[in-house]
Design brief:
232 residues
Length: 232
């Protein structure tokens, strides 16, 4: 396993991405950042996935505003700055960058061709949109915000999708959760998992105020199981 930074050519220009390689060739997975950029925690997720046999690639989606931004949620100043960038972020352009990352990853030496996505917070919303707008082979979304406003695209979902939603997430109220569950209920290959009592960010082990080891382990195991089945 080794980590490095590569450049991806997108529609609007080139941007960086963190690449973590497994010991031997394997399928790919695009790791989609939170509002805090490609920071230490995002890189650890890439490294975790590469240990599981995946070629993991995390694109810098805030590059149009501030390339190589790294913020941390446990610092209030960073948190406020992240919210500012989030408010200015163009999700449509972000999805275009994700597709460029998927295409690049498929052509990367050591990647066997199949590519999935996994995203958190902002990245969770973008993982959902990746299921509706990109050619990813499977998509896993963790506590995505605003998905209830994007359900008009649910009919475009053709590949496996998981939504991991924290039951006590203040950014996903019960009404929003009910809308999401209603839209995806009975849709083949789409699963909504609710983690009772857990908060937004429960998979982020660098944040003791929100992290839940049991919930994160369960969500990751479900994601990896879906990815494995998508390869079959």
């Amino acid at each position: 396993m080794s980590g490095s930074t590569i450049s991806i050519k997108g529609k609007d220009g080139a941007f960086d991405a963190y690449l973590s390689m497994p010991p031997k060739p394997g399928p790919g997975v695009v790791v989609i950042q939170e509002i805090f950029g490609v920071n230490t925690w995002v890189r650890t997720i890439c490294d975790m996935l590469s240990r599981a046999g995946y070629v993991a690639l995390a694109p810098d989606l805030f590059w149009r505003m501030k390339p190589r931004l790294e913020l941390h949620p446990f610092f209030q100043e960073d948190f406020n700055l992240a919210l500012d960038y989030y408010g200015k972020f163009n999700a449509d352009k972000g999805v275009e960058d994700i597709q460029a990352t998927i295409t690049t990853l498929r052509g990367t030496k050591g990647c066997t061709g199949k590519v999935d996505t996994i995203g958190f917070c902002l990245g969770g919303s973008l993982a959902y949109l990746s299921a509706t707008r990109t050619d990813a082979d499977a998509n896993s979304s963790y506590y995505g915000v605003g998905i209830e406003k994007m359900l008009g695209e649910a009919g475009k979902i053709k590949k496996p999708l998981q939504l991991h939603i924290a039951g006590a997430d203040p950014y996903v109220p019960k009404e929003a959760l009910a809308q999401i569950e209603g839209a995806l209920k009975g849709k083949p290959g789409s699963d909504v998992f609710v983690y009772a009592g857990l908060d937004h960010g429960f998979a982020r082990d660098t944040d003791p105020n929100h992290y839940n080891a049991e919930g994160a382990k369960l969500a990751h195991s479900r994601s990896l199981d879906m990815f494995k089945k998508a390869l079959a």
